[in-house]
Amino acid sequence: MAVPDDDSVRVRIAPSPTGFAHLGTASTALYNVLFARQRQGKFALRIDDTDLERNRPEYEQLIYESLRWLDLDWDEGPDKGGPYAPYRQSERVDLYRQDAARLLAEGKAYKCYCTADELEAERRQAQFEKRPYKYSRRCLINPPKDRTEFAVRFKVSGGEIKFTDMIRGEMSFDAELIGDFIVMKSDGYPTYQFASPVDDALMKISHVIRGEEHLSNTPYHLMVVDALGYERPVAYAHMPLILAKDGAKLSKRKHPEANLMLYREQGYLPEALINYLALLGWNPGTAQEIFKFEQLAQIFSFDRVQHAGARFDWEKLNWVNGEWIRAMEDAELAKRLQPFLPRLDEATIMRAVPALKTRMTKLADAVDYLDYLWLDPQPPVLDGETKQRVGNAIDVLKDVPWQPEPIEAALEEAVARSGVGKGKFYTPLRDALTGKKVSLPIHYTLALLPKEVAMARLQRATGS
Predict the structure, then answer these.
(1) SS3 assignment, position 170
(2) Domain, as residue range, for 365
(3) Taking residues 389-418, what's their average pLDDT?
(4) Whole-angstrom Cα distance, residue 268 to residue 320?
(5) Are strands 207-211 and 182-184 parallel, antiparallel or unpaired?
């Protein structure tokens, strides 16, 4: 659907620092950044750190590190400040408490003294009676007199709640189906259903772009905003979930692909991951699949975002990453490879790049192709006929300049004289040089080793 106009676009993400950085956080951040950059708006990073038991400073740092790796930088945030600081929810607790007190004073919320056991008993009773659970309002109607510890519950007034979703169109929820919900816990900290809409209102967030799992939270948030007299966001957009191969929501506990930093460790290019994430739930309406960020910022539209969840596909990601690798300048690719190949000097990596480029789907693949340069493989056990062919290779290589092209020409002559195909001729050479049946093209495999080392490994394989 058409995106509502707004003179001042402000968007945000609000991840929780309760574990490793999630792929879904990067996906949501990407769509927010694209939307903000299209409209010369602002993108804020807010940290939802009100889960006191699970929050960790190191997890917050991982959020910063992973988003910066993807070049999804923010205009405002805990580390940068901004006009609506602070940007950690734990530092905004007084604001939530003030708003909760205002709701209590205006009769829009009430104190709930119920214990966890009492609430669980209510839920079990609803389950037994096969009806949806709604809080009984016992603490609104007849609160206990002998208790002092309480949570603050929002008083749902009923009616219809409508809002615009930029993907799904006009949405409507029946508030009669929503029970009175907790906005402040008994420990004095807010729930997500309270802190998030209060922050969005106070930070002047114009468009709330987040995952589909939050669609059902939106009526709660709008009730809070309306009750406090704050201005609603211009529109919402609830992006499709990223699903695992089995169709389940991508979970930190069950699916390793949820871990955002895994992609950096395995050597996926940040540009390629951004490209892939953009296509995960959105399509450009053309056959083009490789996009730079600047291109995405020009053509992205919520009109082409799908409603259904998008399954994560390793094969497609590997293809996209491989395309980016092959399009990269050799010098830049060599620079990107250095952290994965700390045992090799820059010159050796640079000489390997032309061959690696055609074979790698991710940078970490280079280790398997090049580890023979610092490891000494076990010599293969060869029969007499194969040893003879290896000996022929040694003979033609003795006086050849140690560069890929002359090595290739000399070996092709030896293959032609041998009466066997290239595969049968080259396989024992690869085995002797690398200890593997698969390697870079044989002329590169040889040329990357010092000549004396390469010849010694071949001679050792013949038993000479």
Answers:
(1) strand
(2) 330-369
(3) 95
(4) 10
(5) unpaired
DSSP state of 212: G
For the segment 298-313, what is each residue's pLDDT rounded down to a tens digit?
999 999 999 999 999 9
Q: Give pLDDT tens digits for 190-242.
A: 999 999 999 999 999 999 999 999 999 999 999 999 999 999 999 999 999 99
113-121: long-range contacts, CB 8 A cutoff, minimum separation 24: 113/139, 113/143, 113/144, 113/147, 113/149, 113/150, 114/138, 114/139
Query: Do residues 301 and 355 share a domain?
Result: no
Whether 363 and 463 have beta carbons less than 8 Å apart is answered as no
Question: Are 366 and 322 spatial neighbours (Cβ–Cβ below 8 Å)?
Answer: no
Residue 291 lies in a domain: yes
Q: Which of 204, 252, 316, 387 is catalytic?
A: 252
- The secondary structure of 145-162 as a DSSP string is SS----EEEE----SEEE
CATH of the domain at 343: 1.10.8
Residue keyed to tokens 């010849």 = 455
Rounded to whole angstroms, the Cα distance separating 390 from 348 reads: 25
Please enumerate, as own/partner, the contacts of 306-310 that have beta carbons within 8 Å and a separation of 24 or more: 306/240, 306/281, 306/282, 307/167, 307/168, 307/240, 308/240, 309/212, 309/240, 309/241, 309/242, 309/243, 309/247, 309/249, 309/281, 310/240, 310/241, 310/242, 310/243, 310/280, 310/281
Q: Give the C-alpha separation, 140 to 153, whole Å.
A: 9
Our CA angle for 417, 435, 263, nearest 5°, is 120
312 and 338 in a common domain:
no
User: How large a percentage of the chain has pLDDT more than 70?
Assistant: 98
Q: Cα–Cα distance between 58 and 19 in angstroms, integer?
A: 9
Kind of pairing, strands 235-239 and 207-211?
parallel
Active site residue 436: no
Residue 196 lies in a domain: no
